[in-house]
Design brief:
- The longest helix has 22 residues.
- The protein is built from four helices and five strands.
- It has a single domain, classed as eRF1 domain 2 (Nucleotidyltransferase, domain 5), CATH 3.30.420.
- The radius of gyration is 19 Å and the shape is globular.
């Protein structure tokens, strides 16, 4: 029996469902990435030094990209030994994770990338079971 896994991912949370010999395990990873870092203080910035108090957009984007890459690497490490992988999610995180898998040499293990809106952990576990059950029937 092969080990299969499904990942539901967005930029804040990843739900990983691993199926091995009929046994199911669910793990949840949270991202430390902050989409829009804000400057400190409770009042709007004013004065001629405002530009010095707010980080540049490109620097914030580089920081976000680094934080997301650490997050994606943690997700990949959690499913590193699986033979088949289903990636789902509502936004662009699923595509970014797919690209990161390709970069890490795991691209051939990705069976599908699908768009799925918000789901409970149990709903996603059921979808993962259904996907791999249907795909094994098609392969037969």
């Amino acid at each position: 029996m092969t080990t299969k896994a499904g990942i539901w991912i967005d930029h804040r949370k990843a739900v990983i469902v691993t199926i091995d010999a009929g046994e199911e395990r669910t793990a949840i990873l949270f991202s430390a990435a902050q989409k829009h870092p804000e400057c400190s203080g409770d009042s709007p910035l004013q004065g001629r030094y405002e530009a010095l108090q707010v980080p540049a957009d490109d620097r914030r984007q580089r920081t976000l990209t680094k934080e997301l890459n650490v997050y994606y690497d943690a997700v990949i490490a959690a499913v590193g030994s699986v033979e088949s992988l289903l990636i789902c999610g509502p936004g662009e995180a699923k595509v970014e994770l797919r690209k990161r898998c390709d970069l890490k040499g795991l691209g051939a293990r990705v069976a599908a990338v699908e768009t799925e809106d918000k789901m409970t952990d149990r709903q996603f576990a059921a979808k993962t079971h259904q996907y791999f059950t249907d795909s094994s029937l098609r392969a037969s």
